Amino acid sequence: MSRARQRSRATAALCAAAMLTGLAACGSDSDKPQLNWYINPDGQDTLAAIAERCSTDAYDINIQLLPASATDQRTQLARRLAAQDGSTDLMSLDPVFVAEFANAGWLEEFPDDVASQVVDDDVLQGAADTVTWEDGVFAAPQWANTQVVWYRKSLAEAAGLDMEQPVTWDAIIDAAADNNGTVGVQANRYEAYTVWINAMVLGAGGDIVSNTEAGRDAQVDIDSDAGRAAAEVIAKLASSEARQPDFTVSNEGTSLGRMFPEDPEAAGGAGEFMLNWTFVYKNYEDSVSEEEFADLGWARYPQTIEGEDSRPPIGGIDIGVGAYSQNTDLAMEAAVCMTDVEAQTALAVNDGLMPARESAYDSDELQEAYDPSLLELFRVSIEEGGPRPKSAFYSQISSAVQSVWHSPAAVDPAVTPQESSEFLRDVLDGRRLL
Hints:
Blueprint: H1 3-20, E1 34-39, H2 44-54, E2 60-65, H3 70-82, E3 90-93, H4 98-103, H5 112-118, H6 125-128, E4 132-133, E5 136-137, E6 140-152, H7 153-159, H8 169-177, E7 182-184, H9 191-203, E8 209-210, E9 219-220, H10 225-238, E10 272-277, H11 280-285, H12 290-294, E11 296-299, E12 314-321, H13 328-338, H14 341-351, H15 364-369, H16 372-384, H17 394-405, H18 416-429
Parallel strand pairs: 1-2, 1-3, 7-10
Antiparallel strand pairs: 3-12, 4-5, 6-10, 6-11, 6-12, 8-9
């Protein structure tokens, strides 16, 4: 390695470390470009190492930390880009914001030669779909996320539930209620609640909205048999003994403790069926006993309607290049490196953030770090999963759905889908405010 490259890597690492500890950004000892990469808080140490590895003799990558919530991340980036900030070179984007940012002209479209590298045949379909807008590629998939059913094997066995076969929401709610267990979901009024609703609507063969490239004129579809099927699941859990005490404010972290409760005689003491993201495996591997961990099972996302394939949620992070960056060509070169198989493997092994690239699942590192059957479940769920609506107005769509469907304890299949359809139509048409 050349001395210049060694210096560039050292500079990038020090800058990344400074940013992650809240210190002021450091400069370079040369005039070469400094690319600012705005990251979300997941996997910070691994992302710092990726920034170091992908810095070159031509540029350094400096990390800037975004807020924890996806909504706050969007707000900070949107303010910078709306102001045509030239220092926003690279950004980690929740997939649902790619369409909005691309439509606003805030993301640089990847030219064909770069697009063919970041979205090739190795990228799983569910992840690849998140980075396109109007036939263009506007970001590079860095890691993908999906939800599965995490459960206690002992609870499923007591219920006589064969988790090797597709299961329905009805089945897991009944199994938990009849066997001193619970069902963990994300039902607080925030983005993950929309994720739950959307996945169930897709699993019933419907959509929240369609023809989303029409913008505000998109077709609102949630008042449908599929919308009512999703509402029936929520209403059933809300009135079930399987409902967790914090159901109406539940999030990704709150239900983790109910899988292996300290007091087995407490309500829900038999454990739970929990719908949650890929991070769960590493969380429990590092925090529970070997006996408890051996009782952890996993299965594909539940069917909304028996016999209809489920559509597991798709999440993750895509890397976009700011349209006002003074170094767009260099930023795209960096994005290719930051989303390669090596980067995606490291994020999966270190942080439980699953690859968007299929070949990474076959790496020796992942095969050693995870149960092979779980890797295959993740891979298939991402490949066959269902996206949230791809719309420049996604934030309004999601907020409008949440406002009517929350509280989940008040969801009524006969009323809620119709009311949310009318409200969403009015929001898109500008007749009502969120």
